[in-house]
Design goal:
Elements (H helix, E strand, L loop, with lengths): L1 E6 L4 E6 L4 H10 L6 E5 L5 H13 L2 E5 L2 E5 L10 H4 L7 H10 L1 E5 L12 H9 L3 E5 L2 E5 L7 E3 L5 H11 L5 E5 L5 H12 L3 E3 L5 E5 L7 E4 L4 H14 E7 L7 H10 L2 E5 L2 E5 L9 E2 L11 H8 L4 E6 L10 H6 L4 E4 L2 E6 L7 E3 L3 H13 L3 E5 L2 H4 L5 H7 L3 E6 L1
Helix pairs in contact: 1-2, 1-4, 1-7, 4-6, 5-6, 6-7, 8-12, 10-12
The chain binds uridine-diphosphate-N-acetylglucosamine.
């Protein structure tokens, strides 16, 4: 079991470089399955989710090199094989192999995907779309057996703009016959990143990043190249940390428009930051004003920053309302925050956070990936020493977090017991 020990209340200054986006790379890697060519992906974060996906790719026959943030995947000898529970259950994004393997081989056997326990997280929108494409799906225990004779383009309206379902339909349809149209598609920046990659291989995907994506099927794909976009959730987490403890903290290699909703909210609370090319420079502000935060789909306030911002809200002077609208179970970190001295009253998916409350170092748990980020922010602003257990969750999504924070002056260590 891994844990992090933090000595809080240290001012931080210097530069933090943001890594490639977790939620992009976890789709870019399975997307390579669609070609027998060679793919080069730059700005790849070295996180546990990537390691798991590369294990799956090696199992399928890919030849892989991963050096200096650059991943090269050669799929000349790729084979279609079962993706077993051991691998699929480690992360949510294993479901992207459904789209890419069915697109390429018209047949796939894969175990149910894993991921953080933040709600029931069904995959019915994916399954409905696959069925509309004519794919037969049989559930054998935890294994999905999917097959189709010929994949044809479809017109589909998503009842909810699911990120995963939008990407999965794109993956399944780039090699289909005819044209696929996804209406009410998710608009998250990661979707455009995947579309650019597919198009670099010769696919014809139009409109990614808008609510209407059109995919004209092609017969085959060639070599691919892409640079992973900066991780907007990692960016947001460090900007929040800077807003509480920064002394001109520079968060670099970012696309500020990807976190506009966060920047708007921080400005409303009185945080001072400036944009400098591809960097955001942020300093701690005294007397933060209370604000209300409601998560929603992009370009709204991201659900993945909901937990880290809730720690920020404990430092605002007055009553803040927080509402989570995407998942049912994203407030599991609240008892841990309260144990550190916060005053958070949670009702279903809403919370009233009354501040400003000093936080005190305690032994707490990371109940999921972003809850871990919330506890990390809490540990950084608390007096004394905070120990965060189950930190494996956090390491799934934040590259070299201990190094990055140590370099800007934080006293933090990772202990592997
Ligand atoms: C992706 C992100 C995750 C982020 C989320 C929302 C990845 C690997 N993960 O997750 O970090 O929190 O987007 O921005 O990119 N839903 C259904 N049925 C489905 C699919 C989704 O009911 O078939 C529900 C989910 O339970 C959830 C909501 O829709 O309540 C959003 O899910 P979705 O947009 O699909 O998120 P993910 O792709 O799983």
């Amino acid at each position: 079991m891994k844990k992090i020990i933090i000595e809080g209340r240290k001012k931080i200054s210097g530069t933090i470089k943001i890594s490639g986006a977790k939620n992009s790379i976890v789709a870019l890697i399975p997307a390579t399955v669609l070609t027998n060519g060679k793919c080069v992906i730059k700005n790849v974060p070295d996180i546990t989710d990537v390691k798991t996906l590369l294990e799956i790719m090696k199992d399928l026959g890919s030849v892989i090199t991963f050096e200096n943030d650059t991943l090269t995947i050669d799929n000349k000898n790729l084979q279609n094989k079962l993706i077993d529970e051991k691998h699929a259950s480690k992360l949510r994004a294993s479901y992207y192999f459904m789209g890419s393997l069915i697109g390429k081989y018209h047949k796939v056997s894969i175990a149910y995907p894993g991921g953080c326990v933040i709600g029931s997280r069904p995959i019915d929108i994916h399954i409905d779309a696959f069925k509309k494409m004519g794919i037969d799906i049989i559930e054998n225990g935890s294994i999905f057996d999917m097959s189709v004779d010929e994949l044809n383009g479809i017109q589909i309206y998503l009842n909810f703009p699911s990120v995963g379902a939008t990407i999965n339909i794109m993956l399944a349809s780039v090699l289909a016959k005819g044209t696929t149209v996804i209406e009410n598609a998710a608009k998250e920046p990661e979707i455009s990143n995947i579309a650019s990659f597919l198009n670099s291989m010769g696919a014809r995907v139009f409109g990614a990043g808008t609510s209407r994506i059109v995919i004209e099927g092609v017969e085959s794909l060639g070599d691919g190249f892409v640079e992973t976009i900066p991780d907007r959730i990692e960016t947001g987490t460090y900007v929040i940390i800077g807003a509480l403890l920064g002394n001109n903290l520079r968060v670099e290699n970012v696309i500020p428009t990807h976190i506009e909703a966060l920047l708007y909210k921080l400005k409303e609370a009185g945080v001072k930051y400036s944009l400098d090319g591809n960097s955001i420079v942020v300093s701690a502000t005294e007397n933060l004003k209370p604000i209300n935060v409601k998560t929603s789909v992009y370009p709204g306030f991201p659900t993945d920053l909901g937990q880290p911002i809730s720690t920020f809200l404990t430092q605002c002077n007055g009553e803040c309302l927080f509402e989570e609208t995407i998942y049912e179970n994203r407030l599991r970190h609240v008892p841990h925050l309260n144990a550190m001295g916060a005053n958070v009253k949670a009702f279903d998916n809403r919370a009233i956070i009354t501040g400003k409350t000093p936080l005190h170092g305690r032994k707490v748990k990371a109940t999921d990936l972003r809850a871990g980020a919330s506890m990390l922010v809490a540990g950084l602003i608390a007096d004394g020493v905070t120990e965060i257990q189950n930190i494996e969750h956090l390491l799934r999504g934040y590259e070299r977090i201990v190094d990055k924070l140590s370099q800007v002056g934080v006293n933090i260590k990772l202990i592997d017991e």
